[in-house]
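**Paired protein data**
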Amino acid sequence: MTMTIAEFDHLDVEEKKALLYNCCGSTTWVNKMLPALPAEDLVDLLEIAEEQWYACHESDWREAFAQHPKIGDINSLKEKQATATAWAESEQASVKQASEETIQQLAAGNEAYEKRFGYIFIVCATGKSADEMLQILNQRLYNSPEVEIQIAMEEQLKITKLRLEKLFGINEL
């Protein structure tokens, strides 16, 4: 689904909430976005999205992380909401070409990451191969929890901006 910002501005609150939630699964972020709108254009909207994301807290970030399928986990992709799932599938498209060994290593890495940090591994997967994501995951396992939450938060912001661009017809699937 793509639309103009003007079309978005004329939707009712519940429709706006649902669309924004597909872009970022933090209820707090969605609720912060509504009074900050309307946006003049996509650039303005992305700036508002970033400002509101930085106004959120770690619990809000973790809520957003929890809405993502695990990198490389096809089964968790199927369990998530339709629009967000389609976007996640396109974002993780390179995993479909990955070797079985890489997929198994991603699964093991995801498990180790979640045990270490308490949330799933978040990376802006668009344009990255499965092997690249595995390398990033393995590197980030060595981060302190304080450093890693900041990196994960920034990765979520990248994902949110990409999804907003998709919603408004930029970076089509």
Remarks:
- Residues 77-81 have pLDDT under 50 and may be disordered.
- The first helix runs from residue 5 to 9.
- The radius of gyration is 16 Å.
